[in-house]
Write a structure and sequence with these properties.
The chain is an alpha/beta fold and about 300 residues long. It has one domain: 3-Layer(aba) Sandwich (Rossmann fold). About 35% of the residues lie in helices and about 20% in strands. The chain has nine helices and ten strands. Helix 7 links the parallel strand 5 and strand 6. The radius of gyration is 19 Å and the shape is globular. About 45% of the residues are buried.
């Protein structure tokens, strides 16, 4: 017998209550470590801005900036204090800053879902290859309505003229753990909170490094992922999601630099009151700059790499 609407609502309310109670227990354990570790990061870096971006964390000051409001308007996003919106703005700003968004430029996006970036880049005159996981590997993204299986889903906000969009954007299923070798010669590539879902810490970073092979010399790679604000020791490494620590990011940056690539890090976590607020499961979503993720405080980090 199928449950009626009232019973389903009651069940969902009960499950949300359990989730919230568990999260409160985890937060009591994580709060002190988060406060101490955040201060360590604040002492090591200057506060980042969206006016000139490097590899940096999502912060409240960036979300309250005029630059962020400009990107919300350009990407047809309703303003929210949300790290996902910050990821879109940071990616677009990084590519603009490096002269990538211009007629004739070629870009490839990975795990694009239904994000607005491919549409905006096409509007700016770029030729775009948009990719997402094959449907048999999507692991729930389709049911969450975040998976792109056809071209039209990428322009549902109407950012780009339909005719120009069809001319400039193509779609191809791609497994990010096995990027085809024929995807080459691009001026830039991007992904937004996708590579933490590739199975392990190493798998995600291997993808970022592999994405550089898709670029021309001097090309720009911009990728966002999860960053651990609680610990540089313990973290989340689960087949469904991982959370990168400072040591993971710094070691990876050193490896890239040793190969001649360019990357600059700024791991300042922000110093406003909103940066100290942590959204707990089942998540209110606004504000949603820092969140508790499997017992650790996390936020978004953007990695900006220029290929040698």
């Amino acid at each position: 017998m199928k449950a009626g609407p009232a019973l389903r609502t009651l069940k969902a309310t009960f499950e949300d209550g359990l989730t919230r109670a568990r999260a409160q227990v985890q937060w009591r354990r994580a709060r002190r470590a988060y406060a101490a570790y955040s201060e360590t990061l604040r002492a090591s870096y200057e506060a980042p801005t969206l006016d000139h971006v490097v590899s940096q964390l999502s912060t409240a000051a960036q979300l309250d900036s005029a630059r962020f409001l400009e990107w919300c308007e350009a990407l047809h996003l309703n303003f929210r204090h949300h790290r996902k919106w910050w990821e879109f703005a940071w990616i677009a700003q990084a590519l603009t800053q490096h002269g990538c968004l211009a007629p004739g430029r070629r870009g490839v996006g990975f795990g694009v879902g239904k994000e607005p970036l491919a549409s905006y880049f096409a509007k700016e005159g770029c030729s775009i290859l948009a990719t997402d996981a094959p449907l048999e590997q999507e692991k729930g993204w389709a049911t969450a309505n975040e998976h792109a299986s056809e071209l039209s889903a990428l322009n549902e906000r109407g950012i780009c003229d339909d005719a120009a969009f069809v001319e400039r954007v193509t779609f191809r299923p791609v497994d990010m753990n096995r990027v085809p070798t024929d995807i080459t010669g691009y001026d830039f590539c991007w992904s937004a909170c996708a590579f933490e879902h590739l199975g392990s810490l190493d798998h995600g970073l291997a993808f970022v490094e592999r994405s550089l092979d898709c670029l021309v010399p001097g090309g720009i790679a911009v990728h966002t992922t999860e960053f651990n604000l609680s610990s540089d020791d313990a973290t989340v490494e689960h087949p469904e999601i991982v959370v990168y620590r400072r040591r993971d990011i710094e070691a990876f940056a050193a490896r890239l630099r040793a190969k001649g690539h360019r990357i600059e890090l700024n791991l300042h976590p922000g110093d406003r009151e909103l940066d100290r607020y942590v959204d707990l499961p089942p998540y209110c979503q606004d504000p949603h700059v820092k969140l508790l993720l499997r017992g650790f405080v996390s936020t978004s980090i953007g990695l900006l790499v220029q290929k040698a």
